[in-house]
Amino acid sequence: MAKIDKHQRVNDILLGPLERPALRWFSAHMPAWITPDICTAIGVLGALVTSTAYILSNIDRNYLWLASFGFVVNWFGDSLDGTLARYRHIERPKFGFYIDHTTDTFGQVVIFLGLGLSPYVGFNVACMALIGYLMLGTLVYVRTCVVGEFKISYGKLGPTEIRVIAMLLNTAMYFIGLKSVEWSIANNHLIFSVYDIAVSIIALLLFGFFFDTAWKQTRLFFRLGE
To answer: Among 62, 108, 148, 158, which is least packed, fewest CB within 10 Å?
Structure first.
């Protein structure tokens, strides 16, 4: 088993060339009283804002802008906590890994549940995407412990890209509004929103990344006899 404090971080995302310099800049300009733990709390706050805004979009679609703002706050806190700790050389590998990813899981759950309680995406569809996200997250943590590689990017996509996609969906929800599609199968009429289709595609991508990575890693361990 690999030591959690010796793992290699792999984050080869599409927006990496923009995100990494931005995080370094923020780390260099953060006031001393902003600590990695405060950044983690800011990330959780952003997730709660997004979830609440999704629910309130039942009342007024303008809350979708607040949901997108919550994603920005969530990105800022969640992405900066580890970068800030490394910049200041105050890493606590076990504590940081534990707190960061337990709060990440909480944030993911509340965001997807809030999305499912909005008028735009069905609760079952949001839960399916949540299951895919949690499955992939579990695989990431297991591989970190077994292989020593903390890989959070798949197909150039990572949490940052998922947030950007969600914000683009929020924008579409605001300007396009509720648009439904009817599908008839054997005299059964299924009605779902166009956003259900988009979230379902994201869910399928998450499931695909999970099964592809799990299968390849299983074959590798089998060949090595480990």
So the answer is: 62
